[in-house]
Structure formats: structure tokens, C-alpha cells
Write a structure and sequence with these properties.
Length: about 300
């Protein structure tokens, strides 16, 4: 197939581009490089430095004739979405609508959308949360992802677009950016590499569902090959505290430091974990990378970076 990967210069998108090329697909990447890195785009991929809102994106659709789209380009900072909800909606909702309109116009057969687990479910009532859990976002970022999921439903019913949303838990792995509002795994890896103590906000007992980017890529590969529609949780179903995360990384790094605790951040979610049973029943997918294995590989990757 010929596959468009939006955000293909970023953390997850670049891993997906690599995987699709290994499987023999033809890959085109669109990324505005606002957070992605040009060097992470595979050499075999055709690259366009464009914003998904740009009018020029239609020229790419017209010329390339895509079979499928994997849409990962996004404004992904919860903090930034709170500070500027209009910008968040412009990128995440209007940018996605631009792609959906083009997908229908140029008869794209399949679309996968990178959504979010924790931000869509908000403060969870059950653990781990299934897809049927009430969707109660507490940030503009979560609201924008939910809005696009609802638009996918509209485009499925109205135009027959085959589309699936992947609700990720906390994805970690090589190529994750440790700067800005990054994943805590990348931040801890960078701190330990630089000889610093991992800095934890609050008591560190807040939990997250950490899933390896390798497992996320496999879920995308399997969903793309299917004709399944709707939303699917992509996580481990396991809660891991930030304290435990730091302990595992410190042990792997062979350091003798202890974490530094800072005042807790207001409004931070206390617990999060999502149930992957739906995609397991449908496709047999389940997370295969253990936390210790995945964290070790991620830290070793950071060690090799300049």
C-alpha cells in the first residue's frame, strides 16, 4: 500500500514509518517539523514539510493517491491546550478535518487516528478503563481528540470511510523528546544520563499505564490490515507509580541517587490505566514488552545520543 503518515518525523510517527517500510509499503510523510526531526524520517520515505492545515496538502493527495492514512500530527501538549485552546482546536480539529475531507475526496481506503486514553476518560471511575468508560475530558487537548473521534464516526456513516482511533496510554521508548512537556520516561532518562536526580512532582504515588512504542507500532500494523472501525485502547492495563518508574530506571542506570521530590502539580490526574481487551479479542493484540525491558532499551538509547 501507499501510506501517508502525518507527524512521521515525530516520536511515534517515525517508528511507524520505519515499520511500514520494513513490511514493503510505500510511505509518504507530512510533518511541519515543529517538534519532529527531519533525521528521524526514513530515507526510503517521501517527505513533505507541510502543516496538515496547509492548502498544499491537497496537492500531495492529488499526486500520491494514498491507500491509507495514519494520522499522528497533533498539538500534543495538555498545558499548551489549556493556555491556548483555540490553537489546540485549530490544529487538532480543523487540521484533522482537512485530512478527512481529502480522504473522502481522493477515495482513501483506510484511516487510523492517534487518540488518547487518559485525557479522554479524565478522572477514571474504574481501573483499567474500557472503551465504554464515560468520556469526560478535563482539558482542551482531550476534548479535541474526542471531537475528532466523533467526526470519524460521522465520516464512516456518511461517506463509508473505514477508520479506527487508537486511544494510547502513556507511550514511551527511543526517540521520545525529553524537552518541554515530554513523557516522564524520557525526562528521567535525560536526567540520569546527565548525572542528575530524577525530579518527581508530589509524592510519586500517582500512576500511569506505560506502554512501549514497539507494542504501539504493532497495534497500528495489525489495525491497518483490518477493516475494524471505532476506538481501541492501546495500553497494558497495569498501573505503575512514578516512584516505581524512577526506581527501575535508577537500577538499570546503575546509579546510587534517590529521586528529588518537588511540590505536586495542581490538577494532575492521580491514577490512570486502560483496558486493552477489545483489541485483544478482535485481533489478538496484547502488549509484549515488559516495563523493565522497555525502560532498559529506552535508557540505553538516550546514552547513545550526543
Amino acid at each position: 500500500m501507499k501510506i501517508l503518515v502525518t507527524g512521521g518525523a515525530g516520536f511515534i510517527g517515525s517508528h511507524l514509518a520505519d515499520a511500514y517500510i520494513r513490511l514493503g509499503h510505500e510511505v509518504v510523510v507530512i510533518d511541519n517539523l515543529s517538534s519532529g526531526k527531519r533525521e528521524q524520517v526514513p530515507e526510503q520515505a517521501c517527505f513533505f514539510q507541510l502543516d496538515i492545515r496547509d492548502a498544499e496538502v491537497e496537492d500531495v493527495f492529488q499526486r500520491e493517491k494514498f491507500d491509507a492514512i495514519n494520522h499522528h500530527a497533533a498539538q500534543m501538549s495538555v498545558t499548551r491546550s489549556v493556555a491556548n485552546p483555540i490553537l489546540d482546536a485549530d490544529i487538532n480539529i480543523l487540521g484533522s478535518l482537512n485530512l478527512l475531507q481529502l480522504a473522502v475526496k481522493y477515495k482513501v481506503g483506510r484511516l487510523l487516528f492517534a487518540s488518547t486514553g487518559g485525557a479522554i476518560y479524565g478522572e477514571q471511575e474504574t481501573f483499567p478503563a474500557p472503551e465504554s468508560h464515560p468520556r469526560q475530558p478535563t482539558s482542551p487537548y482531550g476534548l479535541s481528540k474526542l471531537a475528532v473521534e466523533n467526526y470519524l464516526g460521522y465520516y464512516r456513516k456518511t461517506f463509508g470511510l473505514s477508520a479506527s482511533a487508537l486511544r494510547y496510554s502513556n507511550v514511551y521508548g527511543p526517540r521520545q523528546d525529553p524537552h518541554g512537556e515530554a513523557g516522564v520516561v524520557a525526562i528521567f532518562c535525560k536526567q540520569l544520563k546527565c548525572g542528575e536526580r530524577p525530579r518527581i512532582f508530589g509524592d510519586g504515588e500517582q500512576t500511569r499505564d506505560f506502554v512501549s512504542v514497539r507494542d504501539v507500532v504493532q497495534a497500528n500494523v495489525e489495525l491497518l490490515a483490518s477493516d475494524l472501525s471505532g476506538a481501541f485502547n492501546i495500553g497494558t492495563g497495569q498501573e505503575t507509580s512514578v516512584n516505581t518508574l524512577a526506581e527501575v530506571l535508577i537500577r538499570h542506570a546503575a546509579k546510587t541517587v534517590s529521586p528529588e521530590h518537588l511540590p505536586e502539580r495542581l490538577g494532575e490526574q492521580k491514577r490512570s490505566a486502560i483496558d486493552y481487551g477489545k483489541i485483544q479479542r478482535a485481533l489478538g493484540w496484547h502488549p509484549r514488552v515488559t516495563l523493565a525491558e522497555g525502560l532498559g532499551q529506552t535508557f540505553d538509547y538516550f546514552l547513545q545520543q550526543p
